[in-house]
Amino acid sequence: MSRIAYVNGSYSPHGQAVVHIEDRGFQFADGVYEVWSVFDGKMADYDGHMTRLARSLTELRIDIPMTRAALTQVLKEVIRRNRIKDGIVYLQVTRGTARRDHPFPPPGTPPSVIVTAKNIPAARGEAQAKKGVAVLTQPDIRWGRCDIKTVGLLPNILAKQAAREAGAYEAWMVDEMGLVTEGSSTNAWIIDENGKLRTRDTQANILKGCTRTTLLEVIKEEGVELDERPFSVEEAKRAREAFFTAAGAFVTPAVSIDGTRIGDGKPGPITTRLRAAYLERARRDAV
Questions:
Q1: What confidence tens digit (pLDDT) does each residue in 235-283 have?
Q2: What is the CA radius of gyration of the chain?
Q3: Distance in angstroms (rounded) separating the CA atoms of residues 61 and 57
Q4: What per-residue confidence (pLDDT) applies to 1?
Q5: pLDDT one-digit tens code per residue, 267-279
Q6: For residue 240, which phi and psi values (nearest 5 degrees)?
Q7: What are residue 32's DSSP bridge partners?
Q8: How many degrees, rounded to 5, is the angle at CA 58 between CA 160 and CA 74?
Q9: Which residues of 37-53 are buried (b: 16+ CB within 10 A; e: fewer)?
Q10: How far apart are alpha carbons 110 and 97 in whole angstroms?
Q11: Would you state the pLDDT for residue 84?
């Protein structure tokens, strides 16, 4: 089946969906995005992503392109037209198309809206979670507003590529103090050597992940003690367990960091428990 994309009011075959050559997302990375996991044709963590989208647009002074109800309908229609059962739906909003110039375009320039979706077999993620994956650390060279989910992801791409070339699945960013900030496309967590669950608080220069936010609620329900404070690379390597969270990864165990085995080199019991609890909640509350 041919994939279908939505671009600025039109649904088109994926290979024919285009934006203007002077779209500011293409020329300046002047835009934001969100990604929803899809379970049985429904979007997980829906409200969290919508709230973060509105915040990102506001922070960058990009006009909100349509009402929440209208945007929801577009997202659901793309999911329907692509017959997505389990997978993701991707939304990108840019400042629109205008003559190339660094200042904002004239007021009233309509934002560009792009939506795509794809099926991702659930078995793939389950296989990774059962085995666990490797993580590589990389210097954090990103800009100072990582709390905004922009499409300007070149440092993230370079870190992710370094991980893949090293045989790892994800890269964890490390600041100038040797502390882990977050992953190239995920939030980072450990069960430290004292058995305490830790992740960096979002007052630091990291993205407030929607999966992270939902997992915090799950953690509270499960009665797991949480310590929201940074951890160093060395602390992570001494940890009993490690994992990362994201819309596409859910809760994925990391069993090695820079080649150092974490715990016994297998997904740990707390990580496994939290993944199961998160997935149960995400499927239950998907819309």
A1: 999 999 999 999 999 999 999 999 999 999 999 999 999 999 999 999 9
A2: 19
A3: 6
A4: 55
A5: 999 999 999 999 9
A6: -75, -35
A7: 93, 150
A8: 75
A9: bbbeebbbbbebbbebb
A10: 8
A11: 97
The CA distance from 41 to 52, in Å, is: 22
Q: Show which residues are catalytic.
A: 149
C-alpha separations of 201 from 53, 152, 172, 183, 224 in Å? 20, 22, 15, 14, 17
Quote the pTM value. Answer: 0.94
End-to-end, the C-alpha distance of the chain in Å comes to: 24
Summarize pLDDT for 87-97 with one digit per residue, the tens. Answer: 999 999 999 99
pLDDT in tens, 67-108: 999 999 999 999 999 999 999 999 999 999 999 999 999 999
Q: 10 Å Cβ neighbour count for 63?
A: 15
